[in-house]
Specification:
heterodimer; A: alpha+beta; Beta Polymerase, domain 2; 2 domains; five-stranded mixed sheet; 12 helices; elongated; B: 74 residues
């Protein structure tokens, strides 16, 4: 059984046992199109406590014997060894019960994407939630985010012709330089009314930085993180699509990343302090 | 208002991060330099003309660590 097939098997076994899950981590990254080797099965679940998992997992015969590994986020996360790979490495089944970067399971489930993976139907975190789940202190997660941003933009580009709000959706979620270059190349930023709507509904500071030189007086209703005043002032003076504009976008991207890393660091520290 | 970063001091500041042990690799030192100077970099976009901005060592560094362009896929 390949790792993809094993994931599909695990997801189906959990579903049959009444345990709701969404796939995140390396397999979700693979599902969205990034080549990745992974031996872990990372899930977010609606199960309320680790104790409930401890009770229910051993009863799922299809999974075979499971061995729990102690973790430091013991109220939010649980980890079980479910077997060994031919090279001797452990196979881990990991559950997030509460993830500080994500919303509640119900809202994640409402946005989830179900697709064929490993020969079965598997429910994954939406690409936006997957990116959010990777806003950690690890540089490797940010490399994944950069690729996922390109994939999200490419998907939105592809949906323009088939969805009535496709253009607005693309512009209000633009995250990658490649997505932006392609929008310029296809003259998708020519309608001022669409730009104003896209700015108003944008939530990410990088998207706002992309659109700001065209925005006039328009502003986002709510940004997840504000743009630093010096950058904001500079963005309102530069020519759209100029080297200065793209440099300022990179500045906003870096500022967002540093802010997110600091939040993740603070959360880890708070959890460690609680455990002392 | 803070003084703009002199273009000629960018690499010496990065060298200092390496020599002082704050960074373990050149790439890490460059990242640290950029993150420490984000408002300064934004200010350069206002204070310098287009050519001087593009020639500035800190801007070159920023863009070399930045996102891929669409043409990169060709």
């Amino acid at each position: 059984m390949t790792p993809d097939q094993k994931l599909a098997f695990i997801a189906r076994s959990l579903q049959d046992a009444g345990i709701e899950t969404l796939v995140m981590g390396g397999h979700a990254v693979r599902y969205y199109g990034i080549d990745r080797n992974t031996a872990d099965f990372d899930l977010v679940t609606s199960v309320a406590t680790p104790d409930e998992l401890r009770l229910r997992l051993p009863r799922i015969e299809a999974l075979g014997p499971v061995r729990e590994e102690p973790v430091w986020r013991s109220r939010d996360f649980a980890r079980f060894e479910i077997g060994r790979l031919p090279d001797g490495r452990e196979e881990w089944l990991e559950f997030w019960i509460r993830n500080h970067l994500l919303g509640d399971f119900k809202s994640l489930n409402a946005r989830a994407e179900v697709g064929i993976y490993g020969g079965g139907q598997v429910a994954f975190l939406s690409i936006a939630d997957l990116m959010r789940s990777k806003e950690t202190q690890r540089e490797s997660d940010w490399r994944d985010i950069a690729l996922l941003e390109e994939i999200q933009d490419a998907r939105h580009h592809a949906a323009i012709a088939s969805k009535p709000d496709g253009l607005l959706r693309l512009l209000s979620h633009l995250r990658s330089r490649r997505g932006m270059d392609r929008a310029i190349e296809k003259n998708l930023l020519d309608d001022p009314d669409t730009i104003i709507q896209a700015v108003a509904t944008s939530a990410h500071p990088v998207t706002y930085a992309f659109l700001l030189p065209l925005a006039g007086a328009a502003a986002p209703a709510a940004l997840s993180v504000s743009v630093e005043p010096t950058s904001l002032a500079a963005l309102s003076t530069v020519d759209f699509g100029s080297p200065k504009h793209f440099a300022l976008i990179e500045i906003c991207r870096r500022a967002y990343k540093r802010h997110a890393m600091e939040i993740d660091r603070a959360d880890k520290q708070a959890k460690l302090d609680q455990n002392r | 208002m803070a003084r703009p970063i002199p273009s000629e001091s960018v690499h010496s500041e990065i060298d200092e991060l390496l020599l002082g042990g704050q960074a373990l690799t050149a790439s890490e030192a460059e990242e640290m330099f950029l993150d420490a100077h984000l408002p300064d970099l934004a200010r350069l976009a206002v204070e310098l003309d287009d050519k001087a901005f593009e020639r500035h060592e800190a801007v070159k560094l920023l863009m070399s660590h930045g996102s891929r362009r669409w043409e990169d896929s060709l």
